[in-house]
Design brief:
CATH superfamily: Pyruvate-ferredoxin oxidoreductase, PFOR, domain III
Order of helices and strands: EHEEEHEHHEHHHH
Strand order of the largest sheet: 2-3-1-4-5-6
CATH topology: Pyruvate-ferredoxin Oxidoreductase, domain 3
Shape: globular
């Protein structure tokens, strides 16, 4: 099989690193060669965080270049739009519709861009946008946005749900497991 590329993008503190660990574990368990690379901006200060997950029969580099991502998973709408040039022509964006104002918006120097989902679709991208924050809160914690997104992402992988659950059990602390399983189901079935 050819190498597949998934970018996970968001803002520091949203749980993108746990999401990339879950996806990486799932793919390893399913027998793929997997490379995961994390790129941090000012992640601890609410800056951009990007994780590359590449998998296939043989993966030689952890880096995804422009136009190579099969899927972009985004925790925040503007981050989805910011990383759109990395998406393949027939690629998919799975995004939370939550908006987190970047510093130029907070200071009043710029306005948060309007109609981002429509603008991304206008480029030809397939966009799967949903209220992951609302679903995470329904599951029991606003911090479960990452697992809601993984549940939604599961639609684009030909892997049994049991494999996702096994990977989750391996990386999520036991006291948060049931809540995360509920978050996964809510994202999957939204």
């Amino acid at each position: 099989m050819s190498t597949k590329n998934v970018m996970i993008v968001g803002v520091g503190g949203q749980g993108s690193l746990l999401a990339s660990k879950l996806l990486g574990r799932l793919l390893l368990d399913e027998g793929y060669d997997v490379k995961v690379s994390e790129v941090h901006g000012m992640s601890q200060r609410g800056g951009s965080v990007v994780t590359y997950v590449r998998y296939g029969e043989h993966v030689y580099s952890p880096v995804i270049d422009k136009g190579e991502a099969d899927v972009i998973v985004s925790f925040e709408l503007l981050e989805a739009a910011r990383w759109l040039p990395f998406l393949k022509k027939d690629g998919t964006v799975v995004t939370n519709i939550q908006q987190i104002d970047p510093m130029p918006v907070i200071t009043g120097a710029m306005e948060y861009p309007a109609e981002l989902v429509e603008k991304m679709k206008a480029t030809g991208a397939k966009v799967d946008a949903l209220d992951c924050l609302g679903l995470a809160e329904e599951a029991g914690s606003s911090k479960a946005v990452n697992i809601v997104l993984m549940g939604r992402l599961s639609h684009y992988f030909d892997m049994p749900e049991e494999a996702w659950m096994k990977a989750m059990e391996a990386i999520v602390p036991a006291k948060f497991l049931e809540m995360n399983k509920k978050a996964f189901e809510l994202g999957k079935n939204a």
